[in-house]
């Protein structure tokens, strides 16, 4: 190992004097900004369904190597200040300086640095890493640090609830405050007495499931109110709670209700008008299982359910039957997931201060009740050298610097409640992690579901956590250990030895992971030695978050621990249009595997056309596994995901945000086996998702008939009913001109409101064009009368491009890409409410002018928060490639069109683009929005 300057800068017998910061990335005497080329960019984000610009900022400044996608996401989500105002941020320099300068000032204030030169080195090193996309803090840091807003730096929170009404109502309040700020929270409801127990007044208790209704409604209201991102929450119940069966079946029963209501004609799609009438849809549910219960499942024995008030057994169940009910419910609706209680608490560094009862919404942060965690993630591909080796030394130095910054942030951070603030300051939980693992494995020639791939991932994770705790021990020597360390010293050191033992048990598969593990071994030796003397500054150090938005900020190909989603990506171009390109990691992997340039080009061309590598010309079958992906023809098997999680879990303080995706054909037994193996392999938490198990997702096929329906059963067939217009009805006639072509549109409505017919006059009577427009009008009118929503027509026909196109004579729609584009945007403005138009990105001229002036489309009394108006899209121009199908709008839809495999994901609430899985959450490739909390 390279010799290093002592980190604490202390002499024997002297008081701590702060850290010495070694320059590894930056150059002495040269500011990192001076080493890159900057360019001016105009950021424009449009709604893909309408072509309408919903965000625009001219003259922003970014390094020339940042993609258009990354710069768009940063400008729309992280730049602070009102659009159009002189105080709004316009340069990446301003954003990084706002954050880094705050961290440096706090570091100096709390005496983290030995000298002013060390403080400057810290500032430059941190700036260099952020500027070059080596890592990113979690979103709340970019939202809040250095602004007049509360300095909230944490993305993940865990709350607590006791068996009192005051505590339950306080839970509602605390969750609301956290959701309002765009973060997520989790809670374990097991302290609340069951519906099988009595109240002190003599009545029967309601039980925790009943109180979940109120919390769910609160989350849904705050979510739809529109904060920085959607509310995210986790609800946990212990497996021995008497109401566990009701909890397990809660969301599955609601899913049945959704299906019944959809069949009856209600709009039950995600974001539909009627979905809000269904309960429990705003939380992830998890059952906290014990080793005792899992052994009873294996042995086929009974298991006792215990009263919350006195611990007595009030009921017994067959453990295997309850476990099967959990698997069946997960098969039906993806909930509940499992959290393995004994494993979680066996790796707990602070057992003397309380048990770990719950997690954040994505299950990666597991800590004490009323605690929080701030996250940061490294971009692994940045540490891959040109010769194909992993630069472990630079990786280790980056980890140490980032851990230092994350710990400093706790000194000045604000928290939503005093209890959370106190616990976080006392235990200083951190959550360093990484993104781009899938891309790194492919680039180094490793299959994701292979021994070599798992060995490399485990070695890197071990080095990351070892370096983190080593720096934590050094920080303890410089500024003192965390307040709760003395009480938990032996337990904390015991967990450090468990991590070290897991590292020693690793068996290298190749020279690459062997070199990383060697460095990790040295790091863990330093952890044990330094921690024995100094203690530790942080109770927790690492976890693996989904890294949705920030992975796009870093231009990552893959998120968190995930494999590559598909071998082709969808890129939107500035000014419209799209390109379908093969992942840039693929050519790099082919070079690593030794393929000639001509052969690699042929393979890439084949992938661009087919979306997979099967039968690609010149590609050896033994290399297929390197290019296996989450979706498509060679999708990674479910247990491949579980085994990867198991490989890295022993080297994380927390857990892993990841959902094991299964095909629609998966059985209840297969899900049960995944849950059982997750326990046996030592995971802390596990969630599954079976394609098309939810109604509120895009559907891949029609309803399946009951297999065993009796022959005499009467089958009810539901048919749409035409609602004809009355003889006399209100109508609106509009004259228009598009690109010089003139026409008339008459729209007739039902007396009780609602469009029922559209007639278009374009071209001379008897001409082909006039006849086509008449036929088109009749088709649309009949569709409306049969109940096809107007929004569906608008989504399909806006943004179509053909001549005539161009300027119009309509003040609300100055440009149209075609006559169809104009007609259906005009219909939206005439017949849809503002809320429904806003979902489609269609606004009047007055509303757009108001948005430029105030940052909101609504009048002052109804304006939404500034953060809601900051939407974004991917406008990166890629290399020339085969144009994508114009009906495809994301990689998720692109891979579906190529592979024929359904991609189950919701539509983005910000820009309407189809999202794709990222850990246990979803992320939008268009604007970077996530459904989770990282």
UniProtKB/TrEMBL annotation:
Entries under InterPro entries matching the protein: RdRp_reductase_class-2, RNR_2_N, RNR_lg_C, RNR_NrdJ/NrdZ, TSCPD_dom
Known catalytic reactions: a 2'-deoxyribonucleoside 5'-diphosphate + [thioredoxin]-disulfide + H2O = a ribonucleoside 5'-diphosphate + [thioredoxin]-dithiol
GO biological process, one term: DNA biosynthetic process
Domain TSCPD: residue ranges: 726-829
Short name of any one Pfam family annotated for the protein: TSCPD
SUPFAM superfamilies named among the record's database cross-references: PFL-like glycyl radical enzymes
Assigned EC number: 1.17.4.1
Function noted in UniProt: Catalyzes the reduction of ribonucleotides to deoxyribonucleotides. May function to provide a pool of deoxyribonucleotide precursors for DNA repair during oxygen limitation and/or for immediate growth after restoration of oxygen.
Full protein name: Vitamin B12-dependent ribonucleotide reductase
